[in-house]
Amino acid sequence: MIPTQRLYLLLIAGIAIAAGVAGILDQEIRLIESLKITFGFDFAVLVIAFLDARHVKSRRVQVTRQNLSRLSINRDNPVNISISSGDPEKKQTKNHAIIFICDYYPQSFGISQKLLSANIAPNSTQELTYTVRPFSRGEFSWGDIQVRQLGAWGLAWHEWKVPAVQKVAVYPDLLALRSLTIKLTLQSTGAMRNKKRFGLGTEFSELREYATGDDPRLIDWKATARRNRPLVRVLEPEQEQTLIILLDRGRLMTQKVQSINRFDYGLNAALCLALAGLNRGDRVGVGVFDRQMHTWIPPERGQNQLPKLIERLTPIQPEIIESDYVNAVTTVANQQSRRALVVVITDIIDGTASSELLSALGRLRSRYLPFCIALRDPQVDIIANGTSSDLESAYTRAVALDLISQRQVAFASLQQKGVLVLDAPANQISDLLVDRYLNLKARNQI
Q1: What confidence tier does 340 reach under pLDDT thresholds 50, 70, 90?
Q2: How far are the Cα atoms of 197, 200, 238, 278 from residue 205, in angstroms, in the given order?
Q3: Residue ranges covered by each domain of the chain
C-alpha cells in the first residue's frame, strides 16, 4: 500500500479534530482524550486505506507491452502499452481506473516520457505510447512494467510489477530504408515525373508521343512513319552495373558526432546506397575494412541482397585501429575485375594525415570510378560560421576554419586525380549520397 495525499490530509485532520475536542474538555482529561481521539480516528482512516488498496488488487487493470521487434538507431521508435480495465462481457468494473506506469527500458536510451498516466473507463481498453531513441547498435534488455493503480476512495495506491522481460535488437536506420524504398518506388513508377529525365541513358525503355521540349534526335522515324504521328525513344540508364561500397571501421570512425559514432552514420549511408543500387538493377557488394578487409560481401543483384547486407553488417563495431586504405583497394582489385563505382565511406583530416587514402583512391582511377565520402562534423561548421566574443572563442573558430581549409585542399587533390568527392555533415550523408548516386546513374557516368 502506498499512501496518497488525501490520506495524509485525513491523518492531519484527525489531529485537528482532537485539538478541537480537547478545547471543550477539562484540563485534567484533555491530554488523554485528545490522544485517544487522534489514535482512534487515524487508525480508522488507515484501516479504510488498507481496504481501499486491497480492493484494487481484485480489480487490477491488465497491462501488456507490444512485442518489440527491431529498433532503428538514432530514431524515435514507438513503444505501445495496452491497458484493459475489467471484462467487457462480465461488466465487472464500474469505476474509472487511474494508473501510473513506469516501463524499465534500457537506461542508455533517450526517452520521450518516463512516467505514463491514464484514466481508463470501465470495461475498456486504451493504448499508451512513448518513444525511445537508441544511440548504439546491439542487443538490449527490457525489464518488467511497474504499475500503480489508485483505490476507489483515493486513499491508497496499489503497486505491482508485470513480468515483461525481453531482449531487443537495435539495428541501423531501418526507418530511413523504409522511406527510401517508397521514394524509389514512386520514382520508378513515374509518380514523381518531375524528376524523371529522358534521353540521358543508353538502354531503350519505350516509345512515347513527342512533346514540346523533347530532343528531336530521339525521334524514331520508322515508328513515326508507321503510326503517322511523331514518336520518341525513351532511354534509361544502363542496368546491371556494379557498385562496391567500402566502409571504414578504423580510428577515425570511432569519434562521436551528435552522440552517434561516425561508423553508424557511415553504415546507414552504406545501406541506403545499397538499397538505391539494388532498386536500379545494379550488382551491389560491400566491404568493411580497418588494417585488413574485415568483412567482404561479393556483389550481387536482387532484393535478397539487402537483408543479407543488414544481417552481416549490423553486428560490426568500429575499432581504434589505423585503417589500411591500400590493402582495401587492393582487395577490390583482386575481387572485382570489371569496371565498377567504388564508394569509400570514411573521413578526411588533411592532405598529410590522409595521404595514404589519397594515394589509394588515385590508384583506382585507371579501372574504376572512385568516389570518396567524408563524414563531416556539423559542429565544426557551426563554430566556423559563428562569431567570436572573446579570445578563447576566437581561437576555437580559427581552428575550425583551418580544419575546413585543410579538408578542402585534400578534396581538391582527389578531384585532380579524377576521384569524385562528397563532403557532407554526418547526419545528412545518407540522403545526399543517394541523390548523388541517382544523378550519376541518370547521366550514365558510371
Answers
A1: very high
A2: 12, 12, 10, 18
A3: 2-57, 62-171, 204-232, 242-442
